[in-house]
Amino acid sequence: MDRPAIESKVRELVHQQGVVLLAEVELTSRLDEDLALDSLDQVELMFSVEEEFDLEITNEDAEAWTTVADVVAYVERRTQPSAKAG
């Protein structure tokens, strides 16, 4: 999956967890402060990302996500062919 497709899907998943319009979910948006995702919303986002991209995500990895861009970068790293080989 290419970066624009990952960005689009992650934005959609973030939107589904929160209370903001999809158009308001920017890469620079902070999950907690800008998008009002509480800790439960962020756990649900982690599960949604796991399911959508067929990943296993540790709590520590997900806790490092501050912005939408952090989630996109994480998914991009984890879905690259070289990342799956190891």
Question: What does this 3D model show about the protein?
Answer:
The chain has five helices and no strands. The mean pLDDT is 93. The protein starts with a helix and ends with a helix. Helix 1 runs antiparallel to helix 2 (39-53) and helix 1 (3-17) crosses helix 4 (68-79). With 86 residues, the protein is mainly α. The chain is 60% helix and 0% strand. It has one domain (3-81): Orthogonal Bundle (Non-ribosomal Peptide Synthetase Peptidyl Carrier Protein, Chain A).
Could you give a short account of the major beta sheet?
none
What is the 3D shape? globular
N-to-C SSE series?
Answer: HHHHH
Radius of gyration: 12 Å
Task: Provide the domain count.
Answer: 1
Secondary structure tally: strands: 0
Task: Show unreliable segments.
Answer: none
Mean pLDDT: 93
What portion of residues belong to β-strands?
Answer: under 5%
- What structural class is derived from the secondary structure elements? mainly alpha
Oligomer: single chain
* Reported CATH architecture: Orthogonal Bundle
CATH class: Mainly Alpha
Terminus-to-terminus distance: 19 Å
**Annotation field: number of helices:** 5
Please tag this protein with its features.
86 residues; mainly alpha; Non-ribosomal Peptide Synthetase Peptidyl Carrier Protein, Chain A; 5 helices; globular
